[in-house]
Amino acid sequence: MQRAATRREYLRMTVAGLGLTAWRLRPVEALAAMAPDQLTRARRILKTIILEHAKAKDNPWLLIHGIRAMGPAFSIGDGSALEYLCSHYLQETSVNGKAYLYMPTDDEGHPNAFLSEAVLDAGVPADYPFLWHGRRYTIRDVLAGARALFAFDPASFDRDALAWTLVVFAHTTPPKQDRWVNAYGKAIGFSDIVEFGITTLEGATARLRAAMHQPPVALQDGIHGFACGGTHLIYGLSTCLRFGYGQRSMAERMRAQYDLLVWRLEADSRLIDGYYREVATEYPQDVARIYALDAKLKFLGHAFEVINHARLFRLFSPTADQEGAIARAQRELVDVIEAIGQDGIRRHIGDKKLVNLLLGDACHAYHGLTMIRGVNQA
């Protein structure tokens, strides 16, 4: 039997267009309007999966995602997941004689993902206290470490690693006080980092933006080489815009990216479908099915995080046509969630990489769909 993809391989395949073949969603055009109880049921399915499988003390990446979904009160049974992460997984490094706490990238998945997804976006205050090796610290200390340890060279910086750092510094750095000197003695200007991010996004979506004035087509661009189809980068830049980084026509440039993401709801789904048609015979049917389901869960769930975050903070107001596209994609996502709920993930429990993917993507989808309440109330 051909092995299933590793997490890294799967992530790269997903953003390049994983999709559905062995199992197909019914055409979204034929769906009736979704009743509110369907969305509630979808949330309940995700919540059940997360609470049953994400409380893994030996998996900090899952704990971070559990907090992403459930908030800072997420418990691992005998205590706070957040406190456990702080006391067991933070490490200390020294630069020029000064010590800083940080979360290793091997544990959080991406630089500053812990602070982004499990702390600041979760509403954890900077004075949140915890014990580390018998000493008392607060989240403020970890934030200070992130600022001190951040280094930036545009010629060599990993653009796919930027998204979570944008969130962290947007939350903690007022636009009028956006400059500091890091632990290595180098000056950092966060407005310059934001510009680097939006320029990166625009370059990675140029082909798609040129094509978006025609019906959605299965087209790849540089953005598909970024984590989760580049949705994290869009979310990070949205957070910058939310906190006042509006220089160089940032609002208009992000509006173009929101428009594109709505267009991609269907276009990237076609990419996903096409990919699985090509590889249908290379995997056992049940393996192809669950990876296909997770591919849609990943892209649509992350996309709704971006769209609903932007709507919640009045960064984006969809047109009537876009509202229709969003509604169709939401119905498709609910169908995916219901299919995963019917199958369950216990049958795949021996494949830890796959289960990690399903749980992480379930957490992002739950977060995205939960924000709909705030959007409707705003």
Question: Mind explaining what this structure looks like?
Answer:
This protein is mainly α and 378 residues long. It has one domain (7-377). 59% of the residues lie in helices and 6% in strands. The chain is built from 15 helices and 6 strands. The strands form 3 sheets. Strands 1-2 form a two-stranded antiparallel sheet. α2 crosses α14 and α8 packs antiparallel against α9 (190-204). Residues 1-32 have low confidence and may be disordered.
Secondary-structure map:
Layout: H1 7-17, H2 36-53, H3 60-70, H4 81-89, E1 91-95, E2 98-102, H5 105-108, H6 113-120, E3 129-132, E4 135-138, H7 139-149, H8 163-172, E5 179-181, E6 187-189, H9 190-204, H10 206-211, H11 231-242, H12 250-279, H13 285-312, H14 320-343, H15 352-377
Antiparallel strand pairs: 1-2, 3-4, 5-6
Helix pairs in contact: 2-14, 2-15, 3-4, 3-6, 3-15, 6-8, 8-9, 8-11, 9-11, 11-12, 11-13, 12-13, 12-14, 13-14, 13-15
